[in-house]
Amino acid sequence: YVFENVGNKRTLNINKCNLSDDAEYECVIGEEKCFTEVFVKEPPVTITKLLDDVHTVVGEKVEFEVEVSEEGANVKWMKDEVELNRETAGSKYRFKKDGKKHVLIITEATKEDIGMYYAFTNGGESKAELEVE
């Protein structure tokens, strides 16, 4: 935090703002008080390497891979209109994170896996089609 006094003006500068700076701030001068609130949100995570369409045969392993702009970012996976996660996906799908790389793995492709797959971040999305013969 940097405090500045210039004439009658008082300024508080927050350098390298982070999520813990999301708060209400109060300035007190004698009996007078004023308040302000600072809202801090996560910077948008963009997708830097998009998903590629996959054409495969029944029984093969399929990997959909995206790369994002920030390590440790959250990526939401969907097939058509259904979210895929560890609770809903069962043993059909696996999820892997390696730094900025996020991978959706289908262990053995079937005809039921045909469709559009999506990867979402808070700042972007990518989609790819899976075709299974």
How would you describe what is shown here?
With about 130 residues, the protein is mainly β. The protein is about 5% helix and about 55% strand. The protein is built from 1 helix and 13 strands, in the order βββββββββαββββ. It has one helix at about 85-90, and strands at about 1-5, 10-15, 25-30, 30-40, 45-50, 55, 60-70, 75-80, 80-85, 95-100, 100-105, 115-120, 125-130. The strands form 4 sheets. The chain has a 5-stranded mixed sheet with strand order 6-13-12-8-9. The longest helix is centred in the middle third of the chain and has 4 residues, at about 85-90. It is rod-shaped, with a radius of gyration of 23 Å. It comes from Ameca splendens. Its main location: cytoplasm. This is Myosin-binding protein C, cardiac-type. It is found in: Cytoplasm. Keywords: Cytoplasm, Disulfide bond, Phosphoprotein.
Taking strands numbered 1, 2, ... along the chain, how are they ordered across the largest sheet? 6-13-12-8-9
Tally of contiguous helical segments: 1
* Molecular shape: rod-shaped
- Which H/E pattern describes the elements? EEEEEEEEEHEEEE
User: What about the largest sheet?
Assistant: 5 strands, mixed
